[in-house]
Amino acid sequence: RRCSLCHIPDLRGGDTTSLPGFENLTMGYNKYLRPYFGGEPVQIAMSLDIASISSISESDMDYTATIYLRQRWTDPRLVFHGNKSFTLDARLVELLWVPDTYIVESKKSFLHDVTVGNRLIRLFSNGTILYALRITTTVACNMDLSKYPMDTQTCRLQLESWGYDENDVIFTWLRGNDSVHGIEKLRLSQYTVERYYTLVSKSQQETGNYPRLILQFELRRNVLYFILETYVPSTLLVMLSWVSFWITLDSVPARTCIGVGAVLSMTTLMIGSRSSLSKTNCFIKAIDVYLGICFSFIFGALVEYAVAHYSSSQKRAAKAPQERPANELTKEMEEVNITNILSSSIASYKQKISFTSIEISSDNVNCSGLTMKTHEKIKRFLRNKMHRIIGYFTIQNPSNVDHYSKLLFPLFFMLVNVFYWAYYLYF
């Protein structure tokens, strides 16, 4: 190890002379021990450059970013004379102590190695070391999609020490919020970076308290794409269903085709909106609510025509002549008169035969007559009540159904839209 560090110029040529001031780099140096071992903790200052955020997945709830991570700390064992700084070969990192920083909630990460490992190490005369890495990582981001696609997501990039607790290392941002660069210049396909800020925290684990640095940024989704792709077509389908109100009730094929076609188109639009977020169906999203509202109005327009057409057919059936011939009524009246005459004759004849039989027969006749009259009264009363109840729900003029629907359907739809957009945009 002493030869490799003292004869760094050998990498550039055949000179075996060591650089001035580098003789003490290997004297008593142990890469397995941190600086100030057994004493005060090492101050590690960090800064970040966000090169890109390539993808943000709602279904997997993560994002993929490429970052330049820079770490600075002071190792008094590497102090040398002079005011210069030297950039060393990245392979010499294996000979030095470096922090065990890792990315919290990272699903997968890799260090770029084209054409060589993308690492930088720079040594200053006061023993300060600058260690830079180029990393691409996929980090989990807990998302609330209840307001999708008018949502704002808050994601984090957290850096923490794996093995050294707060008694060994202390993490700090180099310049606060100014330690992060590049994120304000990002251009994302569906999102706009609203704001970002840095935090310093601690992670409490069973093995101790570990220092943690947090970069938190808010992403607002661009809703224009969804307005053109989903909201406008669904609104136009609702308006298309209103066209049937201006078509006469007798045009059954035209009105039926408009209603059924709008329902099927709306169903296809709802399925298409869910296909891109197949793994997040547990969320009742804002776009699902709007599509459900549009589907309800389209289905309501189809039901409206069914009610109006049924009422119209019932009214035409009621106007049809249902009078019976006059001779039938005459015959019934004659039969009734003959029956009454025969009944009275038989009753008088029975009175002449026996006084007892007269009482019995008269009692039977009176009881049966009273029973028949009571049943008829009850039936007549119930029949009148049923006709009255049905009359409340009977549409007297079916043409008024379309007339009122022309006004009520657009009015209710506009009112629902006002509440919908006010709630999801401002609450």
From TrEMBL:
It comes from Piaya cayana (Common squirrel cuckoo). Pfam families: Neur_chan_LBD, Neur_chan_memb. Heteropentamer, formed by a combination of alpha (GABRA1-6), beta (GABRB1-3), gamma (GABRG1-3), delta (GABRD), epsilon (GABRE), rho (GABRR1-3), pi (GABRP) and theta (GABRQ) chains, each subunit exhibiting distinct physiological and pharmacological properties. This is Gamma-aminobutyric acid receptor subunit pi. It catalyses: chloride(in) = chloride(out). It is found in: Apical cell membrane; Synaptic cell membrane. Residues 230-340 form the Neurotransmitter-gated ion-channel transmembrane domain. The keyword Glycoprotein applies. One of its GO terms (molecular function) is GABA-gated chloride ion channel activity.
